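Reviewer 2 asked us to include a model.

Predict the structure of this chain.
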Amino acid sequence: MHRFPDYLLKGHANFMAGRYTREKDRYRDLASIGQSPQTMIIACCDSRAAPEMIFDSTPGELFVLRNVANLVPTYQPDGGQHGTSAGIEFAVKALGIANIVVMGHGRCGGIKAALSPDSSPLDSGDFIGKWMKMLGGLPEQIGHNELMTPGERQTALERISIRNSIANLRTFPYVADLEAEGKLAVHGAWFDISTGELWIMDNETGDFLRPEL
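Predicted model (structure tokens):
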């Protein structure tokens, strides 16, 4: 039997001696009262782009849902297994969150795979390839632009994908209704792993801009 990774055990020990000790009362309140985050972050599962670290959040502050390339499917109330949709449903209907942020990031592996349709799948199931087909013809449109460098094409699709996911998010009836009533706000963001910069999507123009604090 493989031993549980030592670095995880050491990390937990550091957590117990540090952050848990400092925020023990908050953790106990969260355990007894429950969570009431105001913001949901839909982010990529890339280990380099953890929302809790990027936004320096406290326990219970963010409801985070992570998947490959931070994609949001359209509303499909069929018999399928829809993990991302289930997370959105819980956040909106059960937790009553006030904000949903779709956050992409630079150098995303899922986006890179979408721009490389001829590459061999990692496995015969090709779950990543099927998942990324959610982008439709967008990778082909961007990938065929020879005036852009590979890096420019990747950044462009990472950001366009965020706008696409936001459009899909608005196909959820309760999301659209609450947004129209001013009870829910939907945002887009893009994180640069290399520089640590956060770019925010302008909800009117769709442009990504560095925020002024």
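The first helix runs from residue 6 to 17. The chain has a mean pLDDT of 96. We have added this to the supplementary material.
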